[in-house]
Amino acid sequence: MQGYEHTESTSELDRFPREEFSFLPHVVQLLDKVSSGKNEIEIRNMTKKLKEKFQRCHQILQELPGADLSREEQEVLLRTEKELLEKKRAARRKYSELPIMQSK
C-alpha cells in the first residue's frame, strides 16, 4: 500500500463506462455471422471491433484507481478514508456551532 496516494474523486465511479463491459450482444452477433458462414469481411471486421473492445476494457481496468491494491489494502484505505471523512464532518459541526457562525 505504500506509495499509493488517494487522489481520485468519488465521482470517478460515476464516469465508469459500465456499458463498455457488455460483451454478450457482440459475441452473439459474431456467432450468428460465423454460423451463417457468409461475408468473411464482415466477420473479420466484427472480430476486430470485439478485440478492440476487449483492449479498451483492459485499459479502463488498468487505469482504475486502486486496481493495483489487494482487497485487504483497499479495505484499509477505505477505512482510513471513512475515518478522515468523519473527522472532517465532526470539525465542520464544531465550527458551525461557534457563535460567529450563528446567524441571528
Report the mean per-residue pLDDT as an integer.
Answer: 83
Morphology call: elongated
Number of domains: 2
> Unreliable segments (pLDDT under 50, ≥5 consecutive)?
1-11
The string of secondary-structure elements, in order, is: HHH
What's the helix count?
A: 3
Q: What level of helicity do the residues show?
A: 55-70%
Radius of gyration: 24 Å
Instruction: Count the beta strands.
Output: 0
How far the N terminus sits from the C terminus, by CA atoms, comes to 49 Å
Summarize the structure.
The chain has helices spanning 24-36, 40-63, 71-96.
Describe, in plain words, how this protein is organized in 3D.
It is a single chain. By secondary structure, the protein is mainly α. It has two domains: 17-64; 69-103. The protein has helices at residues 24-36, 40-63, 71-96. The radius of gyration is 24 Å and the shape is elongated.
Write the layout of secondary structure elements.
Elements: H1 24-36, H2 40-63, H3 71-96
Helix pairs in contact: 1-2
Attribute tags:
3 helices, mainly alpha, 2 domains, disordered N terminus, 0% strand, 104 residues
